[in-house]
Amino acid sequence: MKTIRKMVCLVDGEHYLPVTKSALDMLDNLEHNEVVAVVFIGGTEKLRETSEEGVIEKLGRPVHFGDNPHEIPYDIIGKVIEEYDADVVMDLSDEPIVDYSKRFKIATIVLDMGIPYEGPDFKFYPISEHDILKKPSFKILGTGKRIGKTAVSAYAARLIHKKEYNPCVVAMGRGGPEEPEIVHGDKIEITPQYLMEQSDKGVHAASDHWEDALMSRILTIGCRRCGGGMVGDVFITNMKKGAQIANEVDADFIIIEGSGAAIPPIKTDKHVVLVGANQPLINIENFFGPFRIKMADLVVLTMCEEPMASSNKVKRIIKFIKSINPNATVIPTVFRPKALADITGKNVLFATTAPDSIKDVLIEHLESNYDCKIVGTTSHLSNRPLLQNDIEKYIDEADVMLTELKAAAVDVATKDALKAGLEVVYCDNIPLVIEGNYESLPEAIIKVVDSAITAFETRTGA
């Protein structure tokens, strides 16, 4: 049996009140709908009634107003949803009272309260979350792709492991396995040859859970997903099954790792959100960037250096994050490569997903810290034809292929390098906090872990 949907409607004064009332009556007359309240969000052009009492009388329902008829009362929308325990918000307003950015701001408020936001030709739904984890956990998600989620996830896993919290990682990716796959990074030696064997079997051996296992040497569980909605939901994923496996394996803390801007559909105790300072500001400050940021207990701001982001841009992003989520810790960082084997004195071909614009910084870091010679670089790990062209260009000068474990790192970079007789060394990306008065990243991560454990124990009575 279907339940009645308690609906809050948003209306404006750019419509004649009799027209608005007809729309409200129509919604009320639909089966399983009940308009429980109305929020007046602005506009006076077609208002003949000048008093709030007159508007309420004309519409025949409870109507809630902000202090300024020319501004959208965002705070009132949230309060009305809570007061009436609403199941859905229906937007009956229009330009010029709302534009695209204002509607996304309304959507963020509504979805954050766990109910849908609808209009004449749109519906936004809250993200799916399966409440199935039986251990403390946090989720790592991001505002975009290629901003360092797996690097931060692996970094956090190593840190948590060193603190003897015994973590595992459940990661979803676009190249993940049909059935959730356990990789015992704590037990097996993950060599280039081993990854080639997996690739030859048809496994995407550069998928995120393989990278996590290689970099952190802990147990990881790989899952797949297809599609990514605007809010963050995916079309299909087997992550629920992967999370259920995590409940059974030898691990005491679970890290749930997102993919691109897609949010894992698993409920966790806390959230770590990555924001790329290299991203366009409009994607961070508008659309559903704020929705993701508001979820955060810790925000790791990545790529905080020229030419990807100016210091002014970094400051603006930090100020914006704090304005919408004042309780979150915000830490700006940069990534630096860390070779997982000795490359001292060797000629190195370096393969990365970092853009060409930052390659000189990375080369200087590698040469000064590892006493090696970078004879060539390629930023085309995610573009197989261009990657192969770059490898052919530099391979005769190199002794070592140093590569991130991303995209085509195994089936092209590792394969071609081994075929040419080169040594293959994988590299991690380490997040380093930029200069300034910022909290220690390791301390901030452990605080999130401890608070997740406390939240889990409080919620479950453990």
Write a brief structural summary.
The protein has 462 residues and is α/β, with parallel strands linked by helices. It has helices at 17-29, 52-59, 74-83, 100-112, 149-162, 192-200, 208-216, 239-248, 281-285, 289-294, 311-324, 359-370, 384-394, 409-419, 441-460; strands at 5-11, 33-40, 63-65, 88-91, 117-119, 122-124, 137-142, 167-173, 181-184, 219-226, 236-237, 253-257, 270-276, 298-302, 329-339, 347-351, 373-378, 400-403, 423-433.
The proportion of residues forming helix, as a percent range, comes to 25-40%
Radius of gyration: 26 Å
Instruction: Tell me the span between the first and last alpha carbons.
Output: 36 Å
CATH topology descriptor of the largest domain: Rossmann fold
For the sheet with most strands, the description reads: 13 strands, mixed
The CATH class label of the largest domain is: Alpha Beta
CATH homologous group name of the largest domain: P-loop containing nucleotide triphosphate hydrolases
Low-confidence stretches are none
Question: Would you tell me the structural class of the helices and strands?
Answer: alpha/beta
Mean pLDDT: 94
Write a structural description.
The protein has three domains: 5-124, 3-Layer(aba) Sandwich (Rossmann fold), CATH 3.40.50.720; 137-336 and 434-460, Rossmann fold, CATH 3.40.50.300; 337-430, 3-Layer(aba) Sandwich (Rossmann fold). 36% of the residues lie in helices and 24% in strands. The chain contains 15 helices and 19 strands. It has helices spanning 17-29, 52-59, 74-83, 100-112, 149-162, 192-200, 208-216, 239-248, 281-285, 289-294, 311-324, 359-370, 384-394, 409-419, 441-460, and strands spanning 5-11, 33-40, 63-65, 88-91, 117-119, 122-124, 137-142, 167-173, 181-184, 219-226, 236-237, 253-257, 270-276, 298-302, 329-339, 347-351, 373-378, 400-403, 423-433. Strands 7, 8, 9, 10, 11, 12, 13, 14, 15, 16, 17, 18 and 19 form a 13-stranded mixed sheet that branches. Strands 3-2-1-4-5-6 form a six-stranded mixed sheet, with helices on both faces. α2 links the parallel β2 (33-40) and β3.
